[in-house]
Amino acid sequence: MAKLLEPRPLAEPQTLVRFPDPRGEGDAARDAGDFALSYYWFLVWRQRWKIATFVAVMTAMVTLAALAMPKVYDSEVLVRVDPESSHVMGENAQTSGTQMDATMLVSTEQQVITSPAVVAETIQNQGLAQIPEFAGSEAASSTAAQQGVSDKLLRVVTKHIVVDQPIGTTLLGIHFRSRNPQLAAQVANGLANAFVEHEYRTRARALQDSAKYMSDQLDTERAQMEQDQRALVDYESSHDVIDPDDRQNIYNARLSQINADYTRVQAQRMQLQAEDAIAESGDLDALLASPRGQVLQPLYAKLLADQRELNRMGTTYGPRHPLYAQESEIVEHDRDVLREQAQHIAAQVRDEFRTAAAEERLLAAALADEKARVDAFNLRTIKYNSLKAAATSSTNLYYALQQSIQNATVAAGLHAEDLRVISPARPSDRPVSPRPLLDGALAFLLSAMLGVGAAIAAGLMDRTLSSPEQVEMRLGVATVASLPAVSLKDSPGALKVGQYAANLLPAAGEAGAGEAEALRERSAFREAVLSLHTAIQFSSPERIGVLAVTSSVPGEGKSTASAHLAGAFAALGSRTVLVDADMRKPNVHRQFGLSNQIGLSNVLRGQAPLDDALRPVFSNLTVLTSGPVAATPSELLHLGMADVVEQLRGRFDVVLIDCPPVLGFADAASIANLAEGVLLIVQAGRTEQQQVGAALRQLRGVRANILGIVLNRVSEHTDSYYRYYRAADYGYYSDDEDAED
Questions:
Q1: Which class for 709: exposed (0-12), middle (13-18), buried (19 or more C-beta within 10 A)?
Q2: What is the pLDDT of residues 376-427, one digit of tens each?
Q3: CA dihedral defined by 53, 59, 64, 70, rounded to 10 degrees?
Q4: Phi-psi region at 594: left, alpha or beta (left = phi > 0; alpha = psi -120 to 50)
Q5: Which of 378, 409, 635, 690 has the smallest count of CB within 10 Å of its CB?
């Protein structure tokens, strides 16, 4: 018991069990990417007959409709569009300098071909209003009505016109389609001619209107030209502006010379002003340091020498000595001479400064006068240039207008060179529509794509689990077996162990058709249970002694599956006990027609010993029913279930526990932790993926060893593998099948 109560380690990731693909081809073990593709293939394969029927019906309908439609012929005219051709011939020939982009020009011409004006002219020229294929209502309105063509007829004929452009060319292919090949070629040529003529008339009319307008403007431009030239001449005469460029050069040279003299004198005046300030200050040292004081340097040097001599005599002889007095007079004389010379220099500087200032004032006045004269001349020059430009512009415009009138007049009489028919239409001997083979092939492809897409979309939108592929693709859990949907109302008889061991069934000829079909279904169910038994035996390296069977929600057939699986274990020689642990809604006792007065609930309460509750049913098969419904089954299972499982393990080879549903109850989780393996029963086509996923999360939360999922009640409506289950009934092969085996 202690071993059973130990926390079970998390199970390793399971290896998915692969089943044969619907075609029975290839190995079942694939990688994840291949499996995803095989799942989509399964969704398509499951609906293959519906898809095939839909594709066949649609292909046949389209093909028959194409065969019933009248044949239509196409004729083509090739027209060359030359965007760089000239519109004027002879001496005045010239090419437009602003040519329209070639692609834009060709696109424009495409629209012109299908315009009402061109189409209406073609209808009138070819008499299409009298042809039954195109004749319609004669109610007319708008522009087409004014040309005698009804709007309805205009629309009908336009639908038969196709205009295309061969890639990389400036060609236009004008196609016209009709049931009559000769008529198609005739109308196509007429449409091309009407298009070229329409373009010629439109251009000629536009050029004529332009020439008329320019002629009306010519007199006005002539008068303006004469007025501008007269104004220019009058201004030249009155303001003496004959050659403004030369006069301007003279004025500029004079102004430049005066400005240079003024700058020179101004600099000289500023220097003299500085020297005058030094002289006025009486600072002999500053005067000596200036350029003007250079002439005083010898006198100043003599004064310094005599002063040193006086100082020496004063030291030698004293101040009262006659030599000292004589030397003093010499020094004083030197000072007087130096002072007089400095005053002379100051007076000289002052006179030069005044002269420079006067010259500066004169040059400033001359410069201002010259600037005024230059400004006045510039104003006259600006006015002159303006009048000259106006006269030149009006003259050029007048002569250009004359040339344009001449070019427009000549071009209006010439046919356009930018549109040329290079390949007329010819009657075709092959219709362009309908094409039954092509239409049928397209219908086949489109209907097949639509059918496949609808099958995949329907399969992806179905949130229930119907096949092993869906289980493994969506949940990543192995599907260990699939049990077919059969009617097992006679449950006790259906669970005879011998039928699992030898698949004993009466021959098909010994029973009626309905009974034989029922026997086939039950045999297929037993074969599926035996396959489940084999998968469990090989699901683990060690023998699984305690096996729990549960489901996500009630009503998925877990009790029936548990009973039949227990019968399979017993039939194959294993001492087996089937425990009904669903004490909320027990069902195992009904499977075997047993009484439920004493069972698991009595054992867990201590009201009866385990031996009294065990019920032998068949050879090697014992059943432990649930007993009376318990008020608190979760508490009972938690307190005593481990001891019961341990006792059963010692007495039986296989302990098979029918657990309550996982969702909404804690019973299954507590029992799953005691079991060495857990099977989750899922009803195919009913249980939703979210419910199964939630149940798996709860089981993993208690560290249960999930062996995999068992799909129950699989039918041909939920899984295409159903036909394999039916084929497993070897006792009902036909004579032909036996011969082929």
A1: buried
A2: 777 777 777 777 788 788 788 878 877 777 776 666 555 556 788 888 989 8
A3: 160
A4: beta
A5: 690
User: What is the residue-averaged pLDDT of the chain?
Assistant: 75
Whether pLDDT at 193 is above 60:
yes
Structure tokens at 629: 């419904």
**159-173 burial string, b = 16+ CB within 10 Å, else e?**
ebbebebeeeebebb
18-75 pLDDT, tens digit each = 333 333 333 433 444 455 677 778 778 877 888 899 999 999 998 898 888 888 888 8
Spatial CA neighbour of 79 closest among 110, 102, 52: 110
Quick one: average pLDDT of 272-282?
70
d(CA 549, CA 678): 6
268/266 Cα distance (integer angstroms): 5
Rounded to an integer, what is the distance from CA 345 to the centroid of its chain? 96
β-pair partners for 621: 576, 618
The token duo for 194 is 């009407």
Token output for 114: 């299908």
Q: Any bridge partners for residue 482, and if so which?
A: 711
Taking Cα atoms as reference points, which of 575, 581, 571, 613 lies closest to residue 594? Answer: 613
Other residues' Cβ atoms within 10 Å of the Cβ of residue 57: 12
Give the residue from 484, 493, 470, 503 showing the smallest Cα distance to 557. Answer: 484
d(CA 338, CA 331): 11
**Cα 390 from Cα 6, distance rounded (Å):** 112
Judged on CB neighbours under 10 Å (0-12, 13-18, 19+), 605 is: middle
Q: Would you say the C-alpha torsion 197, 200, 205, 208 has a positive or negative sign?
A: negative
Q: CA 564 to CA 525: how far, in whole Å?
A: 9
